[in-house]
Amino acid sequence: MKWNYRVCVRPSSGFVTMQIHEVYYDKYGMIEYYSKNPIAPLGDDERELFEDMTLMMNALDKAVLNLDHLDKVFKQKKLQDKRKENKK
User: What residue numbers bound the domain in which 69 lies?
Assistant: First the structure.
């Protein structure tokens, strides 16, 4: 499973801030899920910490993800999958 860091925003929170989350993709490159909580850089030593921070900086080159929108899409997909299963 492929993953990366992405800058995310949740407009419905009332206090809009941008945060870094881990985002995971399915085999087609579609977002499958994201980390519930924002991620902080981590490493066992300075080199690992630098590498993790570099990956996070790469997130700034990608489009910002709207977590409210993603949640809505995930909910719709779950309902569609449930309907398909009930038709069997």
Answer: 2-87
Per the CB < 8 A criterion, the answer to whether 7 and 18 are in contact is yes
Angle at 27 between CA 23 and CA 83, to 5 degrees: 90
The DSSP secondary structure of 43-88, one letter per residue, reads -SSHHHHHHHHHHHHHGGGSPPEEHHHHHHHHHHHHHHHHHHHHH-
Residue 24's Cβ-count burial label (10 Å; 0-12, 13-18, 19+) is middle
Please state the domain count of the chain.
1
Closest alpha carbon to 70 in 36, 17, 33, 38 = 33
pLDDT tens-digit map of 19-72:
999 999 999 999 999 999 999 999 999 999 999 999 999 999 999 999 999 999
